[in-house]
Amino acid sequence: MPPRKYPVIALALLPFAITAAQLDHVTVTKEGDRYVLEGAVQLEATTSAVYRVITDYDALENLDKGIAESRLIERVSDTVALVYTKMKGCILLFCRKVERIERVEEISATEIRAVVVPDSDTDVRYENSSWELSPHESGTRVVYRTEVEPDFWIPAVIGPAVIRNVLRRRVSRTLGNLERAALNYQ
Question: What is the CATH number of the domain that holds 74?
Fold first, then answer.
């Protein structure tokens, strides 16, 4: 049976009311133990400004209020960085802090890939993310995708459906915040 896709609800679009960002879609599917998030948005900011915001590893909390802390740990090379993030959030009565270290590869000025370092002491069993940027009309088209498998217990009764809704809202807000932050770089 193919994974079910859940359309964006109207409330998820509210953060975009104060920006010119045009949300194309945000979907969250569950495939086995993994959640797959995909989102695409049109931003009025330039591609270079969007790229600078995404790669400002010491300020990722400006994009997502669920990120309590972020910092560049080490530059492995000119195009590879190790980045620490601590995320926090609650789903109903269950609150959790998730810490992770990602190996971020800045493939080009329009493509970024990140994977959670498997040997790090993390609450994420698997995570692979990508950002793809392309010039579009008066700004930038951003396509974001992540596949994540938590390494902690999620109550089966509330788990998947509630997590989908929370993740969908977070991705929607993050994409809207990305435009506001990128416009400050122009």
Answer: 3.30.530.20
Share the mean pLDDT of the chain.
79
The Cα–Cα gap between 10 and 33 comes to 27
Place of tokens 């590869």: 105
Neighbours of 44 (CB within 10 A): 18
The number of distinct structural domains making up the chain is 1
Structural domain containing residue 177: 26-185
Query: Distance (Å, rounded) from C-alpha 23 to C-alpha 51?
Result: 18
Structural element, H or E, at residue 152:
none
Task: Output the pTM of the full model.
Answer: 0.78
- CA of 118: how far to CAs of 23, 102, 107, 128, in Å? 32, 9, 21, 11
Cα radius of gyration (the chain) = 16
Cα–Cα distance, 130 to 109 (Å, whole number):
13
pLDDT digits (tens, 9 = 90+) for 135-170: 988 899 999 998 988 776 666 555 556 666 666 677
30 domain residue, yes or no: yes
Each residue's pLDDT tens digit, 31-51: 888 888 888 889 999 999 999
